[in-house]
Amino acid sequence: MEVRITTLDGDAAGSVELPDRIFGLVPRGDILQRCVRWQLAKRQRGTHKAKQRGEVNRTTRKMYAQKGTGRARHGAASAPQFRGGGKAFGPVVRSHAIGLPKKVRALALKHALSAKAKDGGLIVVDKLAAKDAKTKTLARQFDKLGLDNALIVDGTEIEPRFRLAARNIPNIDVLPVQGINVYDILRRKTLVLSKAALEALEARFK
Fold first, then answer.
1. Which residues contact residue 170 at a Cβ distance below 8 angstroms, ignoring those fewer than 6 apart?
2. Where does a domain end: 55, 76, 95?
3. Which residue in 10, 135, 163, 172 has its CB near the most CB atoms, within 10 A?
4. By the 8 A CB rule, do 85 and 56 touch?
5. Mean pLDDT, contiguous 10-residue spans, the chain (206 residues)
């Protein structure tokens, strides 16, 4: 698949051949769903906690005699059925992470890249750099390219002025190539790759 390379100003800068093993697959929704579910589950903090009956600050003395009162038998007032007692089957601090093989993760990333290439949501830029850290200037360049909801991926390091200029633009995410992931690709309408990012992806999946 051959795509046109453009500059941030919208000028043509040649073309590049995208490898079919990365950008030419038929996207599978089940693989993408598994990877997105793995990502979202992994980032859940899991710090919610309810006190159980052994953790509430109440007396453990038996409320009243076992027999002879005509009432139901009860022990400590910290039992879940009493106000102020512990929570039965409440949430505990835990990890929500689930397992997903590395090969499935790599395949899901290829399918996400292929999905963007297939629906025309992929743009290749020769270089991601800004002359000055001015958000207004960069936003004007994005308007020329039609970028209003995009994930921008550069090489191993993002040019500092470009990163500062882009961070205040809404619905624009900027990541180094090692941070590219399926969820961020799918949640944005357009994927913008620099030539450096494209070369890094080809080397990664060689």
1. none
2. 95
3. 172
4. yes
5. 88 88 95 97 95 94 95 95 95 96 97 94 92 91 92 93 93 95 96 95 92
